[in-house]
Every structure is written in structure tokens, then in C-alpha cells.
Amino acid sequence: MCGIIGFAGRDEAAPFLLDGLARMEYRGYDSAGIAVRSETLGLQVNKTKGRLQVLSDLIHGGADMKGNLGIGHTRWATHGEPNDINAHPHVSEDGKIALVHNGIIENYAEIKEQLMKYGVKFQSETDSEVVAQLLGYHYKECGSMLEAVGRVLRRIEGAYALGIICADYPNTLIAARKDSPLVLGYSEKGNFIASDVTAIIKHTRDVVYMDDGEIAILTPDSIDVFDDEMNLQSKEHSVIDWDVSAAEKGGYPHFMLKEIYEQPEAIRKTLSPRIREGKLVLDDFHMSKEYLQEISRIFIVACGSSYHVGMVSKYNWERMLRRPVEVCLASEFRYSDPLVDDKTLVIFISQSGETLDTMAALRESKRLGGRTLAIVNVVGSSIAREADDVLYTWAGPEIAVATTKAYSTQLVLMDLIGLYLADLLGTVSKEEYQTILQAVEALPEQMEAELKGLENVSYFASRYFNHDSIFFIGRNLDYAMGLEGSLKLKEISYIHSEAYASGELKHGTISLIEPGTLVVALGTYGPLFDKAMSNVVEVKARGAEVLALTVEEQLEKMQKVADSVVVVPGTHPVVQPSLGILPLQLFAYYVALQRGCDIDKPRNLAKSVTVE
Ligand code: F6R
Fold it and tell me: Residue 245's pLDDT is what?
């Protein structure tokens, strides 16, 4: 979603801002802008609808904007359509203050009405401009930026990350955060704010994560962080341990393809610190057998692909733990008066660690006394910091909007946790424990070999890319995996697609199958293969074109029915989806490629969804 960058330094700010915004393009946006301050030219603001390149061309790569203090923004429209005026930065009426904002100001309408009564004139339809104008109003009244910011923060409700500069303050960048991420970066060239470390990793690895309610004052030489009562805070520094190349394409045409091929390595990194001498060691997760025995309910809560990981885990965990596991969409869970108490374990899965619905569900669970565990990829993100326990998926930065490597690392990490809990509870035999663990450990190598042999997927994509409706069917873990395969396809290729539990088809959806309809039949789950096959026969009988996925062992049977077959390596059923998902990701990628879609930045989507 929206991206913020800010710089208070010794060099020209505009090139830093443009570069930072370019590194956040993947988050999804529809307009962009920057504001820079110089002694001679005062505040200069340029903003425009469309791609960042349009803005960059407008200001000749930044050369037209002078000054070493500035803020920049990429906007993903919520209040008001994407156009030049609604783009950020927003400027106070007197032209002195420029501001960028991520999040939503819930009480903006009443503040706007009040300011209009005082004669303030608004340019845009945004909630963000209200903050800029309110700031301008208070600044005029009290003459101190800090005092004005304090007054504004006490008045506004909702979520915000703010970057503010003022024409009267030559070297000062002010930042504030509540429920929307903001990180502070320290460098030789000056100091930064950013909503995403990707924006500043080229310049610094030394960062501080702002907490809710905090205000930061940056100059080229210092950063001071205050709480909401202006008490100076002593903040812990973090070191970003991934390299800038991790956020670059490295010869691949798209981030998504690069990230698909990075999966074996990402899984290796997620597994290796957690398996020692044939035993699972979850150093960062502490739960005693006694405590676990007292737990009466387990929820897995997430959105989108992370929710799909939860679906796979439900099947696997119930089988391993012999106790009910409920998977919930975070957006539903938070408003469903959930049955959470001090005997409930609630697990939150999130790549970004910033998804608003997941965050809100986490807070609700904590309020109700539940024990919370977060499975997160982004270190230092809000969900990671607020949960009782956190286990990181070490997938590295994921830039493509459509998740691949984060999904895969979540999947194996959930397998590990399930197995760990089952071992603790004594619900898996020693042999089964070892067999599953060995299957998990073998995954990176199996995936590497598998990826080398999946060339036929691009051929199938070229054969099927012009279908306008596609069904994914499968049973049990294949169904859970189909949900993700279908989502991948629809989000980047814009083809209508649905995933169905095979046995459920004949209860309605089969009426949509007509001669030529493409059905992707998933038959990798051994225990129910024959049942799944009978559903493939059913759709074939209605004229469907079937592209099937199966394991070597079942190839012959599948070939007799399906029109095309992709083979994946076989493994223990618990970890089979980790191998099954690769061709589905590649299929979505190549179909989108054939259709000429913007693969890394699909329309209307954002990488981290920080609004409801
Ligand atoms: C799909 C995708 C989304 C996310 C969802 C949750 O490819 O990426 O469906 O999975 O928005 O995001 P996180 O995991 O960041 O909470």
C-alpha cells in the first residue's frame, strides 16, 4: 500500500526520495509525490498520478528540486480517486508545511468541517490533507511545530504514519506513528524515515522501529524519539541482515519468478536453525507440555495466502495433534466475538506483519486473554512485536505482490510447529516424528530438482492462457493447496478462478462445467487419490479439459483420464503441498506472462494491506 520516505541530510534530498520510492513500488500505488525544502526556494512540491517514472520525468530525476530535507510518498487511493491533487505530499494553506501520511484518519470529516468553518480551504478529497491543514492551523496559532504536532496527534483518530517538514525549520523532519509502520534509518549521509526498510537498505542497515504513539525528530546528525507525552525514549537499534541485492531482480525478468526460484534456499534458512541432530529446536517458542495440555482451543488466523497456509495446517495439525484446529479469516474473526480465553492458543500468520485485519484480530485475542503466537516474515513488524511469541520465516524480502516464497516458508514452519507440539503432547509416534522431520529436511533439495524439471508448465500456460474461467479441484491437502493455486492465478492473470473441494462440486458448481472448461485437478494427496480421480472423471464426462497434477506413483492412472499432466516429486503427505505448490505458482506466472499482465504489480493490489 502507500509508501513513505523522508530524508534529513547533507546531500540533495530528491534523488534519495525518488530512489526510496522506486524501491517501494512493489507495494502497489497509483500516484506519487515529493516535497523538498531549501533555504532559497522554500518548499517545493511535485506530485502526479500514475507511475513514479512520470514524476521522475517531471522533475528531471530530481534535478529540478533543491534542498537536503524532504519527504516522498506513493499513494494507494482510499479517500478520493487517484489523481494529481489527491496525491501526497499535502500542504497547509499557507504553503509552509508539507506532509505525507499512511493509514486512515477516521474522524477526518468532522475536523474538515470545523476547519472549513474557520475558513480553511481544501484542495483534495483526502483524509490526509485534513492533517496537513490542521497542523497549519495550530502552527499559525502557537508558532511551534512540535507543539502543533502534539495538538494534532491528540485530535486525530485512526491509523497513521506521518512525515512532516516545514519551510521555517531548515533541518528538521518530524515523524509520528500509530498503527502504521515507520522505521528510522541512521546513515553517514543523513537520517531517514521509511514505511518499509526496503526503501533505505541501500544507505543503511542501522535502524530503529518506531512504536505506536511515538514522535521522532530527525536532523542530519541526530534522531530523537519521544513518547506521546514528549518524554525522550531510549530505543533499541536493529541491524538489517539482508543485502540490497535481495530486493533486486538479479537477472530475472520479474521478482515473482526470482522469488519462486528462491524458495529452496528460503526454506533452508527457515529450517536450518530449527533442526539439530534429528530433533526440532524452537528456541524462540516456549510452551510446556503442561500448558499445552491445558489449551482447549487452537485458532489459526490470517488473510489471503497466509490463510491458505492455515488451511493446510488445519488438516496437518488435526491429524498430528488429535485436537480441533479452527482456521479463521482475520477480517471475520475480529468481529465474530471469538471464543478466546486464557486456554486458547491463537496463531497469526502474516508475511508483512502489518496486515491490519490480522493485527486487529491479534489485539482482540490478547484482550480476551488468549496466548498469541505470530508467524511473520518481516522482522520488527507490528504483529511480530505485539504477539506473545514470534517465529520468523526467513524468506528474506518478498517484493512481488503475489506471495510465493513467504507462503512456502510459512508452510514448512507451520509443519515444524505442528510436529513440535505433537511431539510434546505425545500424539505422534517416534517413528512418525522422524519420518515427517526427514521429509521436511529433504524439501530444499527436492524443490531444487523439481524446479529444474518443470519446463512443461510454461508450455501448458501457453496452451491454456486464453481460458476465461478455471476451476481448481482437489481433496483434503490438495483442496487447501488448490485455494492458493487459484488465488495466484486470479491475482496476477485476472482470470476468474475458483478452488473447490472435489467432493463438493456436484452440490452446485458442477453446473458451470461445460465442454472446454479448464479444470486443474490436484491429485497429489495419496490417501484420497482414488476418490479424487472419480471427481476428475465426473468433470471429464461433462466435457472439461483437465490439466492434472500428481506424483510419479499415480502418473499412469492420471494419464488415462487427464488431458495434460504435471508430475511433482512424492513425499510424506504432510509436506506434499510444499512440492505441489511450485507448478501452480509457475502456471499462474506463465499464464500472466502470456496475457501481458503487470506480474509484479497486479492491478488494485497492494503488498501489505494496512486498511480494512
Ligand atoms: C496473495 C497475497 C495476499 C496476502 C494477504 C496477507 O499473493 O500475498 O493474499 O497473503 O494480503 O498478507 P500478510 O501475509 O502480509 O498478512
Answer: 75
Which residues on adjacent β-strands are paired with residue 298?
A: 325, 345
* Amino acid sitting at position 483: L
**Nearest alpha carbon to residue 45 among 217, 165, 151:** 165
pLDDT grade for 607, boundaries at 50, 70 and 90: confident
Nearest to 573 by CA among 449, 481, 450: 481
- Quick: pLDDT tens for 451-498: 999 989 999 999 999 999 999 999 999 999 999 999 999 999 999 999
**Which residue has 509416534 as its cell numbers?**
429
* H or E segment to which residue 265 belongs: helix 263-271
Contact 535, 525 (CB under 8 A): no
Q: Which residues sit opposite 376 in a β-bridge?
A: 350, 392
CA distance 165 to 145: 9
Ligand 1, residue 358: give the atom nearest the CA: 16
Please choose, from the candidates 590, 597, 513, the residue with its C-alpha nearest in 3D space to the C-alpha of residue 260: 590
The pTM of the full predicted model, rounded to 2 decimals, is 0.85
Q: Are 8 and 81 in contact (CB under 8 A)?
A: no
Distance separating alpha carbons of residues 4 and 305, to the nearest angstrom:
25
The number of C-alpha atoms within 13 Å of 349 and in the hemisphere containing its C-beta is 31
Nearest CA to ligand 1 atom 10: 305
CA 306 to ligand 1 center in whole angstroms? 6
501 Cβ neighbours under 8 A, 6+ residues apart: 473, 474, 475, 479
Q: Please, which residues bridge with residue 548 across strands?
A: 521, 565
Pairing of strands 297-302, 344-350: parallel
Burial of 466: CB neighbours in 10 Å, binned 0-12, 13-18, 19+: exposed
CB-based contact 343:371 (threshold 8 Å): no
Q: How far is the CA of 164 from the centre of ligand 1 (A)?
A: 30
Alpha carbon distances (Å) from 455 to 77, 175, 598: 39, 49, 22
Alpha-helix runs per DSSP H in 24-157: 52-58, 108-117, 127-142, 145-155
Ligand 1, pocket residues at CB < 6 Å: 303-306, 350-352, 355, 358, 402-403, 487, 491, 608-609
607 included as an active-site residue: yes
